[in-house]
Amino acid sequence: MDKNQLLQDVLAHLQADLEQASLAALSAHEAATHEENVAENKYDTLGLEAAYLASGQARRVEELRQTLITWRQLRPRPFDGVQGIELGALILLASEDGHEQWLFLGPQGASMKLQHAGQNIQVLSNAAPLGRLLLGKHPGDEITLPMGQRLQAFEVLTVD
């Protein structure tokens, strides 16, 4: 699998999310400042509610903008056996029941599922519990992750 193409897929997904959030923020701002939403009395909170929504949408746009900047700086490199798993790694992980899953490890803010080269790939943040556990690991290493009341065991099968 081509990690650079996978990165481009993540960036395209984030850009689409940013555009959608920007439109939602613009719409919320227009609603908050529309003359029909001016309070007629102290109990009329429609304008206030619209302002809260607009504020939240604006924060979401800024978060997506920062995430996009961070992901654009990612440069996936080939696996280095000395360093172990690092950002930009493509990892094949097997659970204890034999279920295999591809993961693409990156910086925060882009948890998503993608289709790439006929495979389902989970994009995972290094801040996620599983992402933190994978950093520095090598093929053949096992990790355990608390899942509710029990521990779930995984084995790193391959890393690219």
Automatic annotation (TrEMBL):
Keywords: Elongation factor, Protein biosynthesis. GO terms for molecular function: translation elongation factor activity. This is Transcription elongation factor GreAB. InterPro entries: GreA/GreB_C_sf (IPR036953), Tscrpt_elong_fac_GreA/B_fam (IPR023459). Gene3D superfamilies: Transcription elongation factor, GreA/GreB, C-terminal domain (3.10.50.30). It comes from Pseudomonas sediminis. It comes from the Bacteria.
